[in-house]
Amino acid sequence: MELESEQWEAMGPGARRRIEPRGPWLQFSKLTGFESNAYELAVADLPAQLEGLRILHLSDLHCRSSWQKAYDRLIETVAARPPDLILFTGDFVEDKFNPEQGLKLARRLISQLKARLGMFGIRGNHDVCIGPSGLLGTPMRLIEAQSVYFEGIEIIAVPGPWRHSMSEAFAGTIPPKVPGQLRIVMSHVPDHIRPLGSLSADLFLAGHTHGGQVCLPGGIPILRHDSLPMKYCSGVHRYEQSWLVVSRGFGFSSTPIRLFCPTEVVELRLRRA
After folding, report:
1. Between the CA of residue 97 and those of 30, 129, 131, 155, 217, what are the distances in Å?
2. Which residues, including other chains, have CB under 8 Å from residue 147's CB and lie 6 or more apart?
3. Is residue 233 domain-resident?
4. For residue 95, is it within any domain?
5. pTM here?
6. Residue 9: inside a domain, yes or no?
7. Count H helices, E strands: the chain?
8. Is 37 exposed, middle or buried (0-12, 13-18, 19+ CB in 10 A)?
9. Tens of pLDDT, residues 181-225
10. Euclidean distance between CA atoms 237 and 11, whole angstroms
């Protein structure tokens, strides 16, 4: 449901985005705020019961040892208007090999979020030491190298946590897309969309790039950590048959600084094409 106060702008055929104030241009050490970016996307053959489906996409929390005020604001934002689905595309913690402190905060945060149809997440390259039980006890289900079906939705979790964990043979293990069913592919890295193009995903969700994290004015990334062209470093784009959604993430990786690249939460609202 669209709120009367919302203002939207067209992005091209089949897409528009909500006009929002920019987030903080500089963040150092602490998360001082984030952007709530909403997109309305047209999906061909979307089941009638999924018209207006709202998906919250979160990525790259990189939880460390201290609770951030931005976590409280995120919890309040979600509680005020819970989405239908919340999907996490990896890097729940910052410390790859001693994740327990970060995991404690990630569990605390995730446990306070709610979504009507549930929450699902995949591991990222910082989650190498998080096993299947690492996030048990939270309302989020951690999935990997598998498909999940419910309510006319199919979620495909790409093998992880490393980029090379996903072989090109993986696409051949997935059955053809079922007509009248929404197919969502979750990958930590965006450029997996290349070898997985045959899956014909309606939505391809990814993170990892942080949008560059440290950018030139205008959000131009200096480093992308991905092989796709620079324009795909963040945001929502049409890529062949899919909507490619690349989150700038909600945390810091390595050096705790963000420049001209605010953290973000992405909301996707779907409509029938």
Report:
1. 22, 6, 12, 28, 34
2. 154, 155, 156, 157, 174
3. yes
4. yes
5. 0.97
6. no
7. 2, 18
8. buried
9. 999 999 999 999 999 999 999 999 999 999 999 999 999 999 988
10. 9
